[in-house]
Specification:
- Helices cover 30% and strands 25% of the residues.
- With 480 residues, the chain is of the alpha/beta class.
- Among the domains are: 1-17 and 31-141, 3-Layer(aba) Sandwich (Rossmann fold), CATH 3.40.50.980; 386-479, ANL, C-terminal domain (GMP Synthetase, Chain A, domain 3, 2-Layer Sandwich), CATH 3.30.300.
- It is globular and about 65 Å long.
Length: 480
């Protein structure tokens, strides 16, 4: 049986190539060294866990996080990365839901008690038990074996644990590397949290598939990111709209040396056009992507040329990825995705699995989209966010895109409230200096009157998840 251990295979093929640079510690680690560390971490896991057991990983981005993530596959146990922003109450729910047996935690989380046995993550390496040939257990090479549980952000309810098998992780990695044109000389920074699907699967796994280099940040700091892009010669950079906005607002944006950057790409949430324009004026190729934890974080692709002529598009489906639109309203429909990168379902939640994962292999994304005559897709919003006013369907994403195109608006979100006359009407939450009257006049000239929000609420910032999605439930609570 062939070996389904990506890191050990990469270490075998290119052992001396630079795999990881830690911005926090200054370490520069080859693939051979990283694989050896992961083997030692696997021995640690085997000493306390049995095959199939779940263990939690609660720490900021670190080399040790990556070691234990790859160690999980070697030890045939299931890793559960945990949000560093979650409360103890939220983490206890996850621990109970997945039957967590052990928790590894990093600095700053010493007091966090989720009700299971705990071990300090960052222990001296000499204390980690070394494995020998007679200590090693046989590792499952079944591609359907669950590798990790990634809990969704839970913006509309309790988080659900998505069962990610090895097959999904590796297929997503290879398909991303192939369709996005990643190379063995690519250098990519990771400053988004590794506990999120995007941190692990968007670039870490694909870059390791090609044998490139990851530059790991503990957390996001705009000045540090710009410095890293220059000093390490980063070539491909992934972010979310919030991060691209913060990087654009940083003073280093105007002068940073971007000569070695091949392209930037945004995902996680719809990207305002003015951000694309700003980066393209700096001479940078700027792409958009689309994915979900359940179907792999990379499902679409576009060429460099397409990024200019199809601005606002998420591209075409990747190879071996099927996409269809159902329940059409004009040219907008709900998006379904099918392919070898779809996950196994939700842990301990059969009803939610049956609702989203259909028997014929299609996954119901809940996202609304349209497809143009060339086969490029554009996100119109979430199905649950669509509302009906006077019998007409209204998509908040369309209104939000127009709002952020206003020169005095930096961010915006639209939610619906009940209305005695129209059934539902929109309320816009806006970050910026434009007045209600200015916004009404601006929108009235760009969209139909029935789409113009009946009320504007001005905020200093919108509540967002760590990966950039607006938490609209929090906005609705402000109206109650």
């Amino acid at each position: 049986m062939f070996d389904l251990d990506l890191l050990s295979e990469r270490a075998r093929v290119t052992p001396d190539r630079l795999a990881l640079v830690s911005v926090e510690t200054g370490e520069r680690i080859t693939y051979a060294q990283l694989n050896e560390r992961a083997e030692r971490a696997a021995a640690t896991l085997r000493s306390v866990l049995q095959p199939g057991d779940r263990f939690g990983l609660l720490t900021h981005n670190s080399v040790e996080f990556i070691e234990l993530f790859f160690a999980a596959g070697k030890a045939d146990v299931i890793v559960v990365p945990l949000s560093t922003r979650a409360t103890e109450h939220e983490l206890r729910h996850i621990a109970d839901d997945c039957g967590m047996r052990h928790l590894y935690y990093g600095p700053g989380f010493e007091q966090m008690d989720v009700g299971v046995a705990r071990s300090l993550l960052l222990v001296p390496r000499s204390e980690a038990p070394k494995s020998s040939s007679n200590e090693q257990r046989a590792t499952s090479n079944d591609p359907e074996t669950p590798y990790c549980l990634l809990y969704t952000s839970g913006t509309t309810g309790k988080p659900k644990g998505v069962m990610i098998p090895k097959r999904q992780l590796y297929w997503n990695g290879y398909n991303t590397a192939l369709n996005w044109g990643l190379r063995d000389d690519d250098v990519s920074p990771i400053f988004t949290p590794l506990y999120h699907a995007g941190g692990i699967a968007a670039f870490l796994i694909p870059i390791f598939c090609t044998g490139g280099t990851i530059v790991l940040h503990k957390s996001f700091d705009p000045a540090e990111v710009w410095r890293t892009i220059e000093q390490e010669g980063c070539t491909v950079v992934l972010g979310v709209p919030t991060i691209w906005k913060l990087l654009m607002d940083a003073p280093q944006f105007a002068t940073a040396d971007l000569s070695r950057v091949r392209w930037f790409i945004s995902g996680g949430a719809p990207l305002p056009q003015y951000i694309i324009d700003a980066y393209q004026k700096r001479g940078v190729v700027f792409k958009q992507g689309y994915g979900m934890t359940e179907v792999g974080v990379n499902c679409f692709t576009m060429t460099v040329e397409d990024s200019f002529r199809k601005q606002g598009s998420i591209g075409k489906p990747m190879m071996f990825t099927e996409v269809k639109l159902e329940n059409m309203d004009g040219d907008v429909g709900e998006m379904y995705i099918r392919g070898p990168h779809v996950s196994l379902g939700y842990w301990n939640n059969d009803s939610a699995t049956r609702e989203a994962y259909l028997d014929d292999g299609w996954f119901r994304t809940g996202d609304l989209a349209r497809r143009d005559e060339d086969g490029f897709f554009y996100i119109a919003g979430r199905r649950k966010e669509m509302f009906i006013s006077g019998g007409v369907n209204i998509y908040p994403a369309e209104i939000e895109a127009e709002l952020v195109s206003h020169p005095q608006v930096s961010d915006a979100a639209v939610v619906a409230i009940a209305d005695e006359t129209w059934g539902e009407v929109g309320v816009a939450f806006v970050v910026g200096t434009a007045s209600d009257e200015e916004l009404t006049q601006y929108l009235s000239a760009r969209i139909a009157k029935y789409k113009v929000p009946r009320r504007f609420v001005h905020l200093d910032a919108l509540p967002r998840t760590p990966y950039g999605k607006v938490v609209k439930e929090e906005l609705r609570k402000r109206l109650s």
